[in-house]
Design a protein that fits this description.
With 507 residues, this protein is α+β, with helices and mostly antiparallel strands. It contains ten helices and 23 strands.
Length: 507
């Protein structure tokens, strides 16, 4: 944004005119990667430097008024509070400068982009670094480059060209014939060019990533000769416009992702309903079995009989040979009933998802209309756009859009059963063995489909001491029939009105 030596050189010179002879009155941090300095100038007016050293932002701001937060604020570099600023010294051809103090110490500001840092250097003590991960130099002058623009040789010219950032390189490439110049011509060109950089107007652009440029561009929105004003303008543009747009894009991406997920669910659910309705009715097959009991022999695995609903055709029906024909028909009647309940449940879920999509569209529209950072933050804070997700202390699963929770330990079991589950939720546990409590959250007034209960029972068996058995019994009942025995250990409960399922332990 402004991490080139030539802008920093102008900034340090401006600070020198303001801070020489001033006193450092405060140094504190109230946000991560942010350091704030307070000064009293020679005219007794306050002056502040708010340095944001975040690797992504890296902004400098010079507010006229600054109110320190009452909480989450910590003093730093306390040994130099009250010290006088003797001079502001620019490190020669390096993107850093220092404030020289009257106790023979120096505050070193290194504006190195992602690796920017502020350090306190004292020859009699070890250097202190604001960013602990970055090492502070023992001597700031070790950073200086020994380059004399008036007496350039090929080696020093190459070193000087390395101080040009991409903005300067693009200008030289697009507006001069610099690349075509020979060494002697460059020796003449460079001193005049650098002199122009030290006096040129400063342009602030708000297109794309906001930045300060030393060159006039068609995208600039602000022009000044004062580097402090340029920094403040960039800060305002960045925080009020760029960050707002970034946050809006982030929120819209999240909402559009949820919208796409809901739309995919609606499509898959509609396809599932079509499949369930198009296939042969289980109730019709059960009727055909009951009409042909006299034609079915014990242990038949399948039968071929006339189709009651298509008189000219026969139908082949598979049977479970280990149970009677009547039980086969009863099983199909039960599945048919569950199938109807499943279709009704899916239809309700589709309606809920369509309503959810309407709500998401409304939120996206609100974001589009919000242009102010504070208004956007207020929307987020009031939970109008974002819902903070909390990590539950249970394992969570989803089966046919039913949420299933599995306790992780005895304390988690108690929390799940007695604090989280509602009285009409379904509670499951492996029979006669230690294991996790399992809860199926009920949706509306419809009963939980049997396939969902069977899958949850398989989870209850899997998260138990019966995990390795081929088949395991699992009890289930409504949560209101589970109670805590006074004085019992965590996880121990008494259960009433339970039913039993025999299932294979499976994750």
């Amino acid at each position: 944004m402004y991490h080139n030596y030539y802008f920093i050189n102008r900034l340090s010179k401006k600070l020198s005119t303001l801070l020489t002879g001033a006193y450092l009155t405060a140094c504190f941090s109230q946000n991560k990667n942010e350091l704030i300095f307070g000064f009293t100038l020679l005219d007794n007016n306050p002056f502040y430097i708010q340095a944001n050293l975040d690797s992504q932002l890296n902004l400098w701001y010079f507010p006229e008024v600054l109110n320190r937060a009452k909480k989450n604020s910590v003093n730093l570099f306390e040994s130099i509070i009250g010290k006088k600023i003797l001079a502001v010294n620019q490190i020669h051809f390096d993107r850093s400068f220092e404030l020289l103090l009257n106790d023979h110490s120096a505050l070193l500001f290194q504006l190195y982009g992602r690796r920017s840092n502020i350090s306190l250097i004292n020859k009699s003590k070890a250097p202190q670094s604001f960013k602990s991960k970055l090492m502070a130099p023992n001597d700031s002058q070790s950073l200086a480059r020994d380059t004399d623009v008036s007496t350039l040789n090929e080696e020093s010219l190459e070193a000087l060209e390395k101080t040009f950032d991409q903005d300067i390189k693009n200008h030289l490439k697009n507006n001069t014939q610099y690349e075509q110049l020979d060494f002697n011509e460059k020796k003449v060109f460079i001193p005049a060019f650098i002199a122009s950089l030290n006096t040129a107007h400063l342009f602030v652009s708000d297109q794309g990533l906001p930045k300060i440029s030393l060159f006039n561009t068609e995208t600039h929105c602000f022009k000044t000769d004062d580097p402090i004003i340029a920094c403040n303008e960039l800060y305002k543009i960045f925080t009020q416009k760029y960050l707002t747009q970034q946050k809006k894009d982030e929120l819209k991406r999240d909402l559009n992702k949820k919208r796409k997920q809901a739309a995919n669910y609606i499509k898959k659910s509609a396809d599932k309903i079509s499949h369930l309705r198009d296939r042969r009715s289980l109730e019709e097959i059960a009727h055909i079995i009951m009409a042909n009991l006299h034609n079915i022999n014990p242990n038949d695995a399948q039968i071929e009989v006339p189709d009651l609903y298509h008189e000219t055709a026969n139908i082949t029906i598979k049977l479970k040979p280990q149970i009677s024909p009547q039980k086969n028909a009863e099983l199909l009647y039960r599945k048919s009933k569950n199938q109807k309940l499943e279709i009704n449940n899916i239809t309700e879920n589709i309606a809920a998802k369509k309503k959810h999509i309407q709500q998401l569209d409304q939120k996206i529209a609100v974001i589009e209309l919000t242009e102010d950072w504070k208004a956007l933050q207020l929307l987020i804070k009031t939970n109008a756009l974002e819902k903070t997700s909390t990590t539950l202390p249970f394992n969570t699963f989803s089966i046919a859009d039913y949420s299933i929770y599995v306790g992780r330990n005895n304390k988690s079991n108690d929390l799940l059963t007695f604090d989280y589950a509602k009285k009409d939720d379904l509670w499951l546990h492996v029979k006669d063995a230690p294991g996790s409590h399992v809860v199926i959250k009920k949706q509306g007034i419809l009963p939980i489909p049997k396939p969902v209960i069977e899958r949850a029972a398989a989870l209850a068996a899997y998260f138990s001491k019966r995990k390795t058995e081929n088949m395991a019994p699992v009890i289930y009942t409504e949560r209101k029939y589970v109670r805590k025995i006074k004085g019992s250990l965590p996880g121990q409960v008494a259960v009433m009105k339970e039913k039993v399922l025999l299932v294979q332990p499976k994750l």
